[in-house]
Write a structure and sequence with these properties.
It is built from 9 helices and 10 strands. It is of the alpha+beta class. Strand 2 (61-63) and strand 3 (72-75) form a beta hairpin.
Length: 306
């Protein structure tokens, strides 16, 4: 997890691991699961502040205090980045997880950034978002500001929202395109006047927001091959079996033969790029915009083949 403006360096990661190792040597053995540290209680530890991102493993259990007899809060799935804010004198990591908690020293490990698949160029959003899940692993996610978010295309923005829902970044910092404010600011404001929002958790509000955005991002109308392929890629990414969309092209118009060849080409390219096929049912007809106005275009129903 990463707070706004948080930076990770190889030196910080190395220092964090070395400090834990030193603490373990003084108070217990990290490799044997802290067997000799079970009697060390919260009152007997001090914390040295650290700033580092380490990665979860098969032993990442989160406790209320740096003591295995304290309350077990949750278990973090393997291979996720975790924001470490300190090292305790009895060999535990202090972490930020929408609150302050502790992980035993054998529960987090150092990774080389390149090995973890994280991109380093925070200014190249397209590079950062290549691949299905690379975006949420990116160390520079929290450096994005309102201007960056406003400039994101629909597919990139969906990945941006999902990176918060998948647990990489602290959810408060997610910026909503529709308001230009952080999720927390928007949620706190709406929950004061909207009973439905007040009844939701902030996470559920973001899920609903994402789902509405996703629905719009699949519907169209689309006017280029690139945009239509983006919609199909989203269906693959979110495992959407069937969805309907609208396509308009001045060069194709209502010509059924041209449209059939055009769709065969696009579906074939998606198959070659993603290894996934779609069947589609098409008809040329009337459809309505959100404002109620009506126009003509190709109404297409896509079905993703397993």
């Amino acid at each position: 997890m990463v707070r706004k403006g948080f930076k990770t360096t190889a030196a910080a990661l190395a220092a964090a691991v070395m400090t834990v190792s030193a603490a373990a040597s003084a108070g217990g053995n990290l490799s044997d699961g802290f067997g000799s540290m079970e009697t060390v209680y919260a009152a007997n530890f001090t914390v040295t502040d650290k700033n580092a991102v380490l990665y979860s493993n098969d032993n990442t259990k989160v406790y209320e205090s740096p003591d295995i007899n304290s309350k077990l809060v949750t278990t973090i799935a393997k291979d996720l980045p975790v924001n470490v804010t300190g090292i305790t004198s009895n060999g535990w990591f202090r972490i930020s997880l929408e609150g302050t908690y502790y992980v035993p020293g054998n529960g987090l490990e150092q990774r080389e950034i390149a090995a973890a698949g994280a991109a380093l160029n925070g200014t190249n959003i397209q590079k950062l978002t290549q691949g299905t899940f690379s975006f949420y692993k990116n160390q520079e996610l929290s450096d994005f500001d309102v201007d960056d978010v406003e400039d994101m295309d629909a597919n990139t923005y969906l990945k941006y929202m999902d990176s918060y829902l998948m647990g990489y970044a602290i959810m408060d910092d997610c910026i909503l395109q529709s308001t230009g404010h952080t999720l927390k600011t928007t949620y706190d404001s709406l929950s004061k006047t909207d009973a439905k929002v007040a009844a939701m958790t902030m996470q559920m509000y973001l899920i609903n927001y994402r789902n509405e955005y996703l629905s719009d991002s699949l519907a169209g109308p689309f006017r280029s091959e690139k945009d239509l392929k983006l919609a199909m890629n989203r269906a693959i990414r979110y495992d959407i079996k069937t969805f309907g969309t609208i396509y308009k092209s001045a060069s194709i118009g209502s010509d059924e033969t041209k449209m059939k060849k055009h769709m065969e080409k696009i579906v074939g390219e998606i198959k070659a790029e993603q290894g996934v096929s779609f069947t589609c049912r098409m008809e040329y007809g009337n459809y309505k915009y959100h404002d109620g106005s009506e126009t003509k275009g190709w109404i297409i129903e896509f079905t993703k083949k397993d």
